[in-house]
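Summary for the steering committee. The consortium agreed at its last meeting that each partner would contribute one worked example illustrating the joint modelling workflow. Our contribution is presented below. We chose a case with several input lines so that the handling of multiple components could be demonstrated. No manual editing was applied between input and output; the record is shown as generated.
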Amino acid sequence: MIDGCPALLPLSRDVIQRELDRRKPGGGGASTTRNETDQCEILSGVFEGQTLGTPIAIIIRNTAHNSADYDHLKDIFRPGHADWCWEAKFGIRDHRGGGRSSARETAGRVAAGAVAKALLARSGISVQAWVSEIGGISAPHPSESSFDFEEAERNSLRVPCAAAAQEIAALIEQLRAEQDSIGGVVNCRVLNLVPGLGEPVFDKLDALLAQALLSVGAAKGIEFGSGFDAARSRGSENNDRPCTQDNNAGGMAGGISTGNTLEFRVAFKAVPSIAREQETRDRSGAIRSLHVQGRHDVCVCPRAVPVVEAMTALVLADLMLQNRSARIAP
Amino acid sequence: MIDGCPALLPLSRDVIQRELDRRKPGGGGASTTRNETDQCEILSGVFEGQTLGTPIAIIIRNTAHNSADYDHLKDIFRPGHADWCWEAKFGIRDHRGGGRSSARETAGRVAAGAVAKALLARSGISVQAWVSEIGGISAPHPSESSFDFEEAERNSLRVPCAAAAQEIAALIEQLRAEQDSIGGVVNCRVLNLVPGLGEPVFDKLDALLAQALLSVGAAKGIEFGSGFDAARSRGSENNDRPCTQDNNAGGMAGGISTGNTLEFRVAFKAVPSIAREQETRDRSGAIRSLHVQGRHDVCVCPRAVPVVEAMTALVLADLMLQNRSARIAP
Amino acid sequence: MIDGCPALLPLSRDVIQRELDRRKPGGGGASTTRNETDQCEILSGVFEGQTLGTPIAIIIRNTAHNSADYDHLKDIFRPGHADWCWEAKFGIRDHRGGGRSSARETAGRVAAGAVAKALLARSGISVQAWVSEIGGISAPHPSESSFDFEEAERNSLRVPCAAAAQEIAALIEQLRAEQDSIGGVVNCRVLNLVPGLGEPVFDKLDALLAQALLSVGAAKGIEFGSGFDAARSRGSENNDRPCTQDNNAGGMAGGISTGNTLEFRVAFKAVPSIAREQETRDRSGAIRSLHVQGRHDVCVCPRAVPVVEAMTALVLADLMLQNRSARIAP
Amino acid sequence: MIDGCPALLPLSRDVIQRELDRRKPGGGGASTTRNETDQCEILSGVFEGQTLGTPIAIIIRNTAHNSADYDHLKDIFRPGHADWCWEAKFGIRDHRGGGRSSARETAGRVAAGAVAKALLARSGISVQAWVSEIGGISAPHPSESSFDFEEAERNSLRVPCAAAAQEIAALIEQLRAEQDSIGGVVNCRVLNLVPGLGEPVFDKLDALLAQALLSVGAAKGIEFGSGFDAARSRGSENNDRPCTQDNNAGGMAGGISTGNTLEFRVAFKAVPSIAREQETRDRSGAIRSLHVQGRHDVCVCPRAVPVVEAMTALVLADLMLQNRSARIAP
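What follows is the complete predicted structure of the assembly.
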């Protein structure tokens, strides 16, 4: 359910489906080989190819789902998952795939993000994410000549460099053979952003993005611009000169966008569902041994790329709509 | 203005003033030697030593402020500050110290946090932050024997190890002599937290903390548990077993607290106001040379410690109050 | 989409369908004879007969809808409807039945209200509405012996008195013959409400109910307790003595519930869609004559009864959930 | 604390003080003769005569207040007041004048409303309220020739007709002699409002105004346009033709403003504090006799006039700021 999208934005089911397809398992890559078709249907808010200004409801039915696959998880808590604290919170849990804590939940984010990206595109703003690191193997930074953003959309690992992609693919295959998984880092940049987005105190641009991105399952950290490296830098090195291309701050100052390229990185932990046997606990507290069944991604990062873009676009589109009214009294 | 605090919480001006005093410049340490008395007055919401359940208004007057100190900044934009994008956003700017983008703004956060900490203390929950790294010099981790939390409250640098504090103090003095500044990292842990805090999708515990902490000026990144290191780890290493002391996830799973110690780290950039001459731009776009006047902190981290605690306590107190009602139908 | 319902509330599709059936056209009464089946399907949030604590999505497909019925309204604005100002606001309008300004929109409110009523019922609280007046013909007040609440559920006009219902039915038939419509008043009372609901300033109990009830289409006014009559009363007559059954204030004081019966009345205007020919304007501003096609209710009030109950239950359930946490510090 | 006011609005303390002076007791009229000076001070958000776009804090100190006047109310609950249910909610109560349930609380609303009125004035929109009825004596409607809005600002009763004002003044004096109080009705209209304000479902224009106005203490009902009279009208009479001056609906349709004059009426109950001896209850539940001390208004309506204007202006200014962005995609 998307609320707040203005009227008269051209929008079709295809625009949304295209983003959902980017989130689908890539086949031979780091992803699961489950078949998730993820076909979307627009229920409301669009009329004759344009938005109505009223809420847009989209439904994506889970056709691949087989509840019986999850019967062995009814009384057991998976390591690295939220099963246990979910029961501590709600006193009840839908054990069939994790319910709202399932990674499938990101399909809704990607669908909503497609609308936000369409809105931003009308102002010339583009949001681009890619996999910058998996298991310690790094892709080049945009400042390096080997960085090739179009390559990231060509390979199923979303790595912006063919050589690095090949090296990472080998690591993924090795881990798959070892029935293990691995974490990684997704980078995101926003081109042509307007200055002035974000509020001075609690709703700083970085604060809003941090909430949006850390709300994605498996995300464990975020840093803006030079980030944790800035913690080791001197003011004389790290200070950006106003109205220049200096960008240690990642496109913002005091929580407000400067108009420079917005840049941040999100750390993702390893997929907790691994085929390897693990020690865990059941509801009675007893130690149990668990084989998590089903086919799971080795690394979440390639499929997280459109999710990172979606959450970023949603925050920015929301700020763009607010900003026009906030700036100057009529 | 603090809204949402329940009635009948014992509260005095002293409880708030004590936290404000922890935020004051330490004198010989990393901080400015400006005299900020920061005396608070409670205007409403407390009656005969107890909260009324209605909003608590607290006022802290800025007595040390001298507007004339800032006259040289009227038409010039400071490097590393929000002066320029503030004008881009609002078309107007109070140049006398940065207005709401001034670090003084954190005094209000600390005052509100004192109330939140008092509320959490009634459930036995304590929020503890310390400086874990400045300019690449690290303090020990709580898992190391040389970690001494009480030491962090004894030295003005808030470093939990006397030897590391001494080494960092020497670096600070050197940077002060060089008219420069430096970044650092603040760690935070929460003891005795209840399980079940945080919502499954957008309002995950880490997402809410990330917004709260990144809304602090100069914060450039946050990581939970093993954080960016988790991005380099395998699932077989990084997965926490439920109902054990395993804690790579930092006290949460799926955005919901587990009851284990909550742990995260916040990166702060170097203080942008340095005495050294810097190149910058004025309102006309012309290149200008600037000496930022006044006495500024060399490193923001020691004084950020109570701010990090305050923001953490505010998020947790809010979730505690919501949680009792959210869990189980009457 | 219902967010905020706690976990472990027993809930089935039947509980919701029963309320939707109360909203259906009554057949021979004041209502349309269109066939609206309004069958609901629960998509999420309920597991093995209990709520999960996560959002409950319910879908009600509009099977009776025939878009061609509305083709004559494409370029014309109906009198008494929002067609014109909708276009002024959004620049686009779905002319097929009014979109979100259609009375069908209340089906979602009734479905959500069924969940809220189930929640309140667990605390012994019941919300009861009835038609108290149509076209100047009044039903008796609960303080009168001829008031019979069960009768209101027996007759399709929802009038709590068989004699008054008969008189009103005759008026409805006469108006239907004259191709006209009529307004009326719906009364609502809440039994066994707890004291202490509502906030002291902006979120007073009556303020929240007023927003909720005036958000129902065709509602034009609301009054609490003695309401507009209170405007003609003296303090010596109108003041309720605390902790007594005095109830001129309608079960609240200073915006907070007292624990006495909550009482208010909502005025509804006549249904604007009448079969009679009316003068109106088209998109070019030209005067046009319009026969609104289709079968429409003569009076909205009987079908508004479950909607009034639903909105009331939603406000109260929300306050009940907040209230437990708001009252006293842990 | 006013949040959301855009930058660059010319604003001085005088603009706010002028509205606060309109709320002051009139001296010989229906009002108390207590001396409330209500001098305001702007603490933040305004710089060199213009708003900064950041929150505007205004403080009004209560200089006339003498706590000892209220000592006799410590253990007793006043009839018609919120004393009892306040204790039921919070378990604690500031008995010195009612705290946030005091009518003094409206001073803050009027100060904030002054800013909203200044903002609306820049779009040519004016909000005008007056006393239309006290104790059954009515002032003329704007459609009648004897209606004189400027007269309402001349007499201390805010009645738009000198003859009616005189008649009401006599009633007020009689009630004061009888140590009693009386209710009344305040009308409000908004001239030159733009079409398109308000949202289609829950945030209808009338719903938002209803919440805002019923949040004013002593308000017991609201009706829009022909209001409760519409409940007795036929569709053929009550339907407004689009794009005409027809205005039974009070300037809105489907919850969205039409651009016609916005019109509504608010019913206020009699002031509950009367000098006459009243029966009541104390904290132990015992019956007690009470003389409420101090000088209180006989009728709240004249002083409610600027409060009604303020709440209306706040709702409309907020919608105006949102509306510019909501309408059409960039």
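The mean pLDDT of chain D is 91. The interface with chain B takes residues 1, 7-8, 47, 50-54, 59, 89-94, 99-100 of chain D (CB under 8 Å).
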